[in-house]
Structures are given as structure tokens and as C-alpha cells.
């Protein structure tokens, strides 16, 4: 087939992709335009599509809100949650994958059942726990509920189950040798 024939067949695909791209970019453009309007223009009906270009809105946001403090809180929360989940989830997953004990499968099924419950169901009980601990409006109250993850434990357990041991005498685990190698 010639190039012109291929191009003729692909133009509907390009039109559909262009319409989809415009639909994806429109909310971001609308957000940018609204951020440059005055409060009256942003809340007017019908909406104004051309802003009055008030660039001072951005400096006002940084002046009126403690942006540096909020950014630092986000960094601390992210780092603590990631480190805690890697630590706790990997320990729990290793136990569920490698150690044999009574009730191991039941505990794993209970963990899977936790994954099936929507997170909104846990919202009020977690709030009450944080309130009873006296951690409302603190960074610890935000970090504490996210220190452990059933999903992270499940994923790491599946990883540990796939790792073979080299010999039955050794208790440690190793990553499987690449295919085609002797495994020595």
C-alpha cells in the first residue's frame, strides 16, 4: 500500500484522537483561565471566557496561605508513610508467604476481605480513633492511618510467593535465576 492510501485510512483516527485530546486539555485551560479572573468574573453566570488577566491572584495565594508549611507537611507525610508501609507490609507479607502457622490462610483471606471494602467505610472509624488518641489537627493524625496497607501486603506477599529457595536446607529466599541458566 502506498503512503497516501495509509494516510487516507488514518484520518478518522487522527480526528478522534484530536477531539479526545481537546476534551482532556479543556479542564486545565478552564482552570488556568479561571485562576486569572477576579472573583466576580469567576462566579458570574454566564461565565466569562476571557479573563481580566489578574496575575496578582497567584501572589495573593502565596501571601494568604502558609504554602511552605503545607508543602513540608506533604513531604513528611509522604516519606513517613512510604517508609512505614515498606517496612510493615514487607514484614507481614514475608510472614504470610514463607512461614507456616495455623490460621495463615484465614488471616490472608481476612486481609483480602479488607481490600474488598471501600475506603469510605473506614473514614468515620478512623476519625474516631484519631480523635480518641488526641491527634486531631496534627501531622500524626494524618500519617497514622496510612502506616499499613493491605494492598501493599498483598502485592509483596505475591512477590515473596514467586521467589524460589535455592535448596531445601537453606531457609533464606533468593530471586529466581534467569531462564536458561544453571542456577548455580
Automatic annotation (TrEMBL):
It is a multi-pass membrane protein. The chain crosses the membrane at residues 12-33, 79-99, 106-123, 135-160. This is Uncharacterized protein. PANTHER family: ABC TRANSPORTER PERMEASE PROTEIN MG189-RELATED, ABC TRANSPORTER PERMEASE PROTEIN MG189-RELATED-RELATED. It is found in: Cell membrane. InterPro entries: MetI-like_sf (IPR035906). It comes from the Bacteria. Keywords: Cell membrane, Membrane, Transmembrane, Transmembrane helix, Transport.
Amino acid at each position: 500500500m502506498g503512503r497516501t492510501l495509509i494516510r487516507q485510512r488514518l484520518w478518522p483516527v487522527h480526528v478522534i484522537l484530536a477531539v479526545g485530546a481537546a476534551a482532556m486539555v479543556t479542564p486545565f485551560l478552564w482552570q488556568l483561565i479561571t485562576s486569572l479572573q477576579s472573583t466576580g468574573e469567576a462566579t458570574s453566570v454566564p461565565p466569562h471566557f476571557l479573563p481580566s488577566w489578574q496575575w496578582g491572584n497567584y501572589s495573593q495565594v502565596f501571601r494568604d496561605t502558609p504554602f511552605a508549611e503545607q508543602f513540608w507537611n506533604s513531604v513528611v507525610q509522604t516519606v513517613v508513610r512510604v517508609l512505614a508501609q515498606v517496612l510493615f507490609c514487607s514484614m507481614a507479607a514475608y510472614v504470610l508467604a514463607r512461614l507456616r502457622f495455623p490460621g495463615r490462610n484465614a488471616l490472608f483471606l481476612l486481609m483480602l476481605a479488607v481490600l474488598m471494602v471501600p475506603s469510605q467505610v473506614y473514614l468515620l472509624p478512623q476519625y474516631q480513633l484519631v480523635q480518641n488518641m488526641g491527634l486531631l489537627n496534627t501531622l500524626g493524625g494524618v500519617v497514622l492511618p496510612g502506616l499499613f496497607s493491605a494492598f501493599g501486603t498483598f502485592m509483596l506477599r505475591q512477590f515473596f510467593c514467586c521467589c524460589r529457595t535455592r535448596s531445601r536446607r537453606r531457609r533464606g529466599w533468593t530471586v529466581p535465576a534467569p531462564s536458561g541458566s544453571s542456577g548455580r
